[in-house]
Amino acid sequence: MKKIHLREIRMLGILAMVLVLVAVSASAEAASWKSKYQRFSAVCGEAIAVSEVVCIKAADGKAYKADADDSSLRPAVGVAGKACSAAGTVEIVVEGIVTGMTAASPGGRLFLSASPAGALTTTQPTNAQPMGWVMPGTAGTGTSTTYFIKVVTPASPPAGY
């Protein structure tokens, strides 16, 4: 009977270790960044690539590359999550985590760029529109290609906007 009792104790110990490993791996997985976002789609007025900043032009209601220096191409409404050709449909990310962007310093604030059209910059332009932040990257690299996008459109545009 002692052998059976010891065997049961060993099995319980092994079962406890397995449960601990499953719990640890689940919490580690939850800590990794995932591409989750709010988005909508629009008809393209020009070809737009993935990760380009997009506006909806008042003249025709179509999506174009946004530009901080061109009042007809702002405010930006989001970042292209899927590419399109002219007259195609673009997916526009309004808020969320996007990956595969241009490497930048983690924690940097992102703005709609003045040049080139459709770009993000960490340097605040004259007609600044905040677009999000650069998220932490791989430990030790000093840069990240993962951005948190949160489009902020002005309630009432300042003079010159």
Overall description:
The chain has 161 residues and is an alpha+beta fold. The protein has one domain (37-150): Beta Barrel (Virus Head Decoration Protein, Chain: A), CATH 2.40.300.10. 18% of the residues lie in helices and 29% in strands. It is built from one helix and nine strands; from the N terminus they run αβββββββββ. It has one helix spanning 2-30, and strands at 37-43, 53-56, 63-65, 76-82, 89-98, 109-112, 120-121, 130-134, 147-150. Strands 1, 2, 3, 4, 5, 6, 7, 8 and 9 form a nine-stranded antiparallel β-sheet that branches. Strand 2 (53-56) and strand 3 (63-65) form a beta hairpin. The longest helix has 29 residues, at 2-30. It is elongated.
Chart the SSEs and their pairings:
Layout: H1 2-30, E1 37-43, E2 53-56, E3 63-65, E4 76-82, E5 89-98, E6 109-112, E7 120-121, E8 130-134, E9 147-150
Antiparallel strand pairs: 1-5, 2-3, 2-4, 4-5, 5-9, 6-7, 6-8, 8-9
